[in-house]
What we know:
By secondary structure, this protein is an alpha+beta fold. Helix content is 29%, strand content 13%. A 4-stranded antiparallel β-sheet has the order 9-12-11-10, with no helix packed on it. The longest helix has 19 residues, at 333-351.
Amino acid sequence: MPGVTHDEAPLLADLMPWSVAPLRPGRGWPMGPDAASLKSRWAALVRARESEREALFRPSRSRTLHTAVAQLPGHQGGTARLAREGGPCPEPVRILHGPFDEQWLIPDHRLIDVARPELWRVAGAGQLFAVEQGYVPGAAGPVVLASAVLPDGHSPAGRPGRIRPLFRRPGGLEPNVAPGLLGHLSAVLRQDVTARALLAWVLATASGSAAGCRVPLTADAGLWARGVGLGERLLRLHLRGDGERPKLPGGHRPYVRAPLPARPGSLSYDAEERVLRVGEEGVISPVPSEAWEFEVSGVRVIERWFTARAAGVAGGDAQPGTLEAIRPAVWPQAWTSELLELITVLALIAELKPQRRELASGMERRITVDELGGAGVLPVPGGARRPASVLDHREEGPEGQFALI
């Protein structure tokens, strides 16, 4: 393959070939860390007269009050023009808004400039998403994150990566893997290699490069098993426990030592005391320095998470009279619980760094790009890079018509 050395690790783009670009919301108010505020914003929008409604909506070239679009797949948002909308708010859904930051989104196609319907069609039970982070030279932190909720692909460094569903069809069907790859790995490693095992391996071994995310593949069955085991632990942490909440050992678990203020405006960390100060009065400890310093694409995760919420409390930086100005009056208790969980997750992921380094240093018997080419896995056929045809039900189109896809 031109420009590729024989021993270079394959690109994630070739191992999981179908990818989708990040969503482009077009306006900020349909998304936020608080679902109740989104419903209040919707109510304010539909109560407003048309002239006021347009200013509140914030039209763009892709979306105005008169744009006709189909429903988002899997959701019952309206399809009539927003200028005539008067019904209740579609129930907000969880969405991953950047690294380790689950927020809420009103799932209405009329509100989102570029919603990527092909992602919504395959989201749901059995689906996982690998979110490739944009490459930032010298930046610390993982280059691939996993999510069970739909990710918007937002990058904290402003360099968007790609969203790669693990399966091409709803219900966890048809792995989004280069044709023949799982069979080749199974034969070489003499064990059944599944799509989830491959994702776990990616989380444990992937590294960033200017050409894209690279994933070394081993021909050592023992090393593969250790890597998949490590990747499964990372995957469960990325998924917030995958059914069981992650916990640090006793004596290391963060607790609220002093109540957080109603409107915390600052966040600081005392490394010597292992204390996180939230506003002037709030205290959380113990907080490992590894959690505080945890970065993705060169941006500290905890600071970014806090900024998104501190600005979202009434009295923040939103312009008065806008829908973004409709916010919680005080810091919700749920955010404190989410912050404690975030600290725990980041600390536990940081603890696995030595194991990742050990795994990388033992990568001797590699499956090369040339070998994958000889096995017919590479180059990937063009059809594997395009979404599958998954429409097995009618989707409502603009103004109540049904979409023909």
